[in-house]
Structures
1.
Amino acid sequence: MIIRGALVAIPAWNEEGSIADVIAKVREHRPDADILVVNDGSSDSTAEVARAAGATVVSLPFNVGVGGAMRTAFLHAQRGGYQAMVQVDADGQHDPADLDRVLDGLADADVVVGTRFHPDSMYFVGGPRRWAMVLLSKSLSRMNKGKISDPTSGFRSAGPKAIALFAVDYPADYLGDTVGSLAIAIRNGLVIKETPVTMYFRQAGRPSKNAIWSALYLGRATLAIVATATRSRKTPKGDAA
Amino acid sequence: MTANILAGITAVVTFLFVLSMLRKGALREKYAVLWLFFSFVALVFALIPDSLNWVATKVGVAYPVNLVFFVLAVLLVLVSVQLSHELSRHEARIRRLAEEVALLHEEIRELRENRDE
């Protein structure tokens, strides 16, 4: 099999407005990396724009959600022999200037999560959503025996072991793609680390998050963790590095 | 007695309806068998009410009707859970197929491009 370097995977759903800019910035910071856009059943011209910007585009026939889009990317990375894959959001929330840091962390970890919570961060969440995130962080950090302060961050990288695991087992449910996948990685003995990243706020309007939304969010996230935490391993125990 | 006739007619109608769906290929055998069996048992109880009384006494239920309701509720719950399970499995499979289709599509596009060059 051909051994390739890094793959930057960008799941995109109706992001024709921002995708070209994200691809250009990724290219600027990591000219060596291949760029894969997983077009998740967009009804706009996301695929065409991304292809014109020079990315490889894989189009799902209908919308399957971020989890399904990411698994497609992991399958592509595994079959293509990539040694590292990093996920970047298509809406421009992630700063491609952090790509190096997130990828370099793979030197001594299987998964590197870019955390938006650090002293220099402008990122802030309050209220029930904050509590939910703290609880998720606490429980995952405990499972991991190492701190994961931002488990819902979508800016993360995966090494060869994680790519092989996620290509066959990546949750498609809501929050599963972030929280659930970390739980799966921990269950399979992968090493997870975190590194600080910059987070930009989404410009376009987002539906307001009320108390009911937060409660549901917390409930689903807890369910995602419980489901994976009690699940059997996919790889033998001794396989862990 | 009228209640029995009503129950009997319902059972027969259900049985025939499921059978016709099965013949049209609108229902797979594995699901049809279950409903055919249910309606058959209901028909037996409707035609021979004593059979229901006999079963009720055997399992120690005072009112035979309660036994019918209880068993029916349990069965319907089990069937619903089973269907949810099948649905989940199918959703996962469809998603997986979508992923494969997407990757193959891109591969073919690439191959075509290289060929045309």
Note: The first helix of chain B runs from residue 2 to 24.
2.
Amino acid sequence: MSGASLPYHLRPHKAVDRRIFIDLLSRIERWRPLTDYVYLSMGAYPLEDHKLIHRVLGINRLIAFDMEGAVVARQRFNRPVSSCHCIEKTSGEVVSEIDRILDSCGFAAPDGVIVWLDYTDPKKLGEQIREFESLLDRLSMGDVVRVTVNAHPRELIESPSEKLTTAEEKRAKQFQGLQGRIKEFMPSWATADDMTADNLPRVISESFAAAALRAFPVTSKRTFRPLSIVRYADVSQMLSITGVIADRADEGHMLSQLGMEKWPFSSDTWSIIHKLVVPDLTLRERLFLEREVVATPAEDIIKGLGFDDAGGISVANFIENYRSYYRFYPTLLTAEL
Amino acid sequence: MAADHFQIVDNCGGIPIDTAKKYAFAMGKPEGASADRPPAAVGMYGIGMKRAIFKLGTEALVESLNDTGFSVEFTAEWMSTEGWDNLPIRELPDGKLSTKGTSITVMELNEEVKAAFSSGGWIDEFKKVVAQHYSIILSKGFSVFVGKTVEEALPITPEPFLLLQTSEVSGGRIEPYIYKGKMEGVDVEIYAGLYRALLTAEEADREEETRGVTDEAGWTVACNDRVVIWKDKTRLTGWGEANVPNYHGQFIAITGIVLLRSDDPSKLPLTTTKRGIDAASNVYSEAKDLMREATKSLTSFTNKWKKFPEKLETIYQASEYVDLPKLRAIAAATQLTAMRKQPTVSKYEPQYPIPAEEKTHVVVRFEAPKADISFLGETYFGEGGSVKPGDVGREAFDRAIKDARSPKR
């Protein structure tokens, strides 16, 4: 289960993660104007990210893709602007044909591209990381790449029906599963002990780092600079990596323009991974928290709430986190139209 | 390894002062360079060390203690001179160096080197290369620590060479091919087999499209324990030569290792840089005949099973990995048969399992509309859940044959 079958509006973590991405893009805008960029991502049937990108950043050149014809037809109905192209392709095809796709959508030679590969299938991590490398091979300075992959240890075992008695056995098997998919990218320090929800994201993130290093070796003029790495779990744990292709010589200047040191979800290295904890809040709780969260100490907030457990998540634990993302918390209301 | 310097320190006995004077720091071809070589080494005249220093930077200091401690300085001025006179060796007073060993420090690193050593990712990739290329030496107990600082330096774990071995199924079992003997003064050992399960039909199809699994197939060749070819899948190791097919995804499970050993390193089929194999040498071309024989048998095995993917599971019963020391023990305990062509080499050719259906069954392949397949799938197996197209086809065939054979009313 990757969460793919869960309706979008029931995935608050994903919604917050998406808003964090938009917030990062608006910081990137301080460095380079994004208006004439092309935004390309899967988007699924509701095209939530395309809508936001268009509304917040004013980007009109949008491309959405999916491998299912039925989903693409639905995307076409839901697209935010008529300049949003919806095409039936796999992610692998999009990566290898990216120039042709930009051209056929009438977006040849844009100022830059923003590509989000929002993967769901944990069994295909090997393909996903290789696609990421090959995407970087085809992109240029100023392009933004974001990948989301499954990072749940449970998903690393091919046939979970096998009898595994101890946690050690399970982790050994999971490690073997991961090696079978991406061994050549994995950091040399990774062991079976890292097959935990807390450590696996770092192993996967560093594996993407190795793929980025292949695309841009240390001697190349450019580099892929990670900007924000976030993990969260609506159902299964996911890992989102966002970065930008920059000239090595210009990296420091770019970072200072982005003001990354002041941004709570900034990742200076591939090992800095932010964990999102998003509890399901009622509207009243949320309004109370929004008023208090910036200035009031955590213990006073809990006192004011009168409870310290929100559906299994300790309020004390998420309040720090919430301070960083409350601006992005989605308002989900039922409405009759 | 750091952005501003590189240092390598060993405790391996140091360089005797005579060797230093005669070979290690002499430029050009050393005179009378044949005596006093350590047995079964790869390097001979210290050429590799000098090459490495030149590649890294423009200033270096070598210090070593075996019998008499000494230091040698490579300066930028010396490097830029044309003649490259022999480097002055400065003998050090007793007690200046305390452990028998050598340390090489390179300052003023070249730009490319600086960029590499500043990158944690590059250093980690380097560690993986060491783990592969020195896996045999490392697994014998030699330790290598690599890091940005001495405190950060972590030991490197050797990348083991592993082959699968299973229990007997339908008159055969998966176990290693073994060749052992002597060719032109070089000891030869070859082990080949499978390191993972064969790809299922579905996986093989996917691999044709994009690579999704770790590919560790191919031949590894080591000379005096130093790996010179790592997991090669080209003509260099016999793939696509003679009757051996070209390497492709279906052969992802096939791997092998060749161990060549001689007390006289000049007999080994090495290129002058010691980083590659001299493919034209007699020893290697004869070894390659054996490698091709093993590869051919293993490709035939995977071809036979390709047609019966659903039976594949049965052949991996009680599968376990055997590493190099264990492979050698197996070779010592196994009755090897002599080879007609090369009487100095004997071999063990295992009997691999053969699908029972090979002679009696054929494979049926056809395409059908997706909608029809999912309709039939739901009709046969109920709604919900995804059924593989192959299973739908099989069920349809089974039902059809049952129906056709049942007595008509």
Note: Residues 282-306 of chain B form the longest helix (25 residues).
